[in-house]
Specification:
This protein is α/β, with parallel strands linked by helices. The protein is built from 14 helices and 22 strands. The protein folds into 2 domains: about 180 residues, Flavin prenyltransferase-like (Rossmann fold, 3-Layer(aba) Sandwich); about 190 residues, 3-Layer(aba) Sandwich (Rossmann fold), CATH 3.40.50.10300. Strand 1, helix 1 and strand 2 form a beta-alpha-beta unit. Bound molecules: cytidine-5'-triphosphate. The site of cytidine-5'-triphosphate has 14 residues, from helix 12 and strand 17.
Amino acid sequence: MVDHASLSGKRVLLVIAGGIAAYKSLDLIRRLRERGVGVRAVLTEAGARFVTPLSVQALTEDTVYRDLWSLTDESEMGHIRLSREADLIVVAPATANLLARMAAGMADDLAATVLLATDKPVLVAPAMNVRMWEHPATQDNMARLERRGVRRVGPNEGVMACNEFGPGRMAEPMEIIDAIATHFADAAHKPQAHTPLSGKRALVTSGPTHEPIDPVRYIANRSSGKQGHAIAEALARLGAAVTLVSGPTRLPDPPGCAVVAIETAREMLAACEAALPVDIAVCAAAVADWRVAGTSDRKLKKDGGGPPSLSLTENPDILATLSQAGPRRPALVIGFAAETGDVVAYATAKRARKGCDWIVANDVSLGTTTFGGADNTVHVIRADGAEAWPTMGKDAVGARLAEAIAAHFHPPAP
Ligand code: CTP
């Protein structure tokens, strides 16, 4: 339960763009007003096709701002003032088009101009068709905005107005209000953001890889991506510009990270190389060591000749490749080791073999739930020895690792 006490007396500028979810924005206004929030609304031209300016005006009890060129609005309230007089700008629904215009820094209507002119925090609630959300253009735009500090709530997964299923539904009004309250509570408790990694670039690999056998079958493993995603999020929270290269997972993109989705080990290597140069590389992915040699581009059939035999060939080792000495080697390279006994001894040998700086070793013996589970028990192996960390949630391991990385770059004064 998020406490809404921080909301009373706050001023929100709500930008309503043109999407079917705009009807939920009316409910959002009503619920914000009930909690003592002053709401002023900007309606895009497309937004006004989904909700009437009159409804918005009645609910906000204020003028609805629509036109960049309206003399009345400009004389009463210039767009600069409009954007500065709020404590927070909320874009709900944030359409693919508006996100693209925000990412490009365009100022071609009142909404985009206000968003470009503002020095206030911005929260977006994306809403669009699932394919539009998953399109690399939208994902790139969203990642770019998040790197600039734009916060996001949703989109949620579900059946959409267009009858497709997947992520794209706008977050519910109460979820948006929770995100707004969290923003204000964070701002109140964080007099100074703790961003020791600002200015640093980080690359994190996460999740499994899928190695195709034929167009419909693949070899995979049980990695959930939880640990890698938690590390990426924790590094971004400390101010690093994070690229997360991830195999297929069921996890939402961690806020503040640029996410590159890949399937195979070779794609993961190419995406990592494209992200260089970075200061920090953390290889948390469970990369398949082997792929099928000579995959079939036609589905393998039962042809009466018995089961097919698969011949495997070795995948590139991404951690070892990134660890190689040279001008592009990240200053700090961290690998993971999944061991089923003699954890520290095997992981220490692995550190030397791969050429990385630190190894985070975990025990994946039968009976432990490291793979797929919420907790992790790790040893961190560095040049000067091994440190055993207590069992904790994967988020906590991510946060502690990110702090250790920050301390590596800014060692405490002796
Ligand atoms: N790794 C990688 N590319 C590979 C294989 C592994 O980047 N092709 C990275 C993983 O992300 C992890 C570390 O290397 O950081 C794990 O090394 P690996 O040799 O796969 O060891 P384990 O998974 O621990 O298993 P094993 O020792 O049995 O090989």
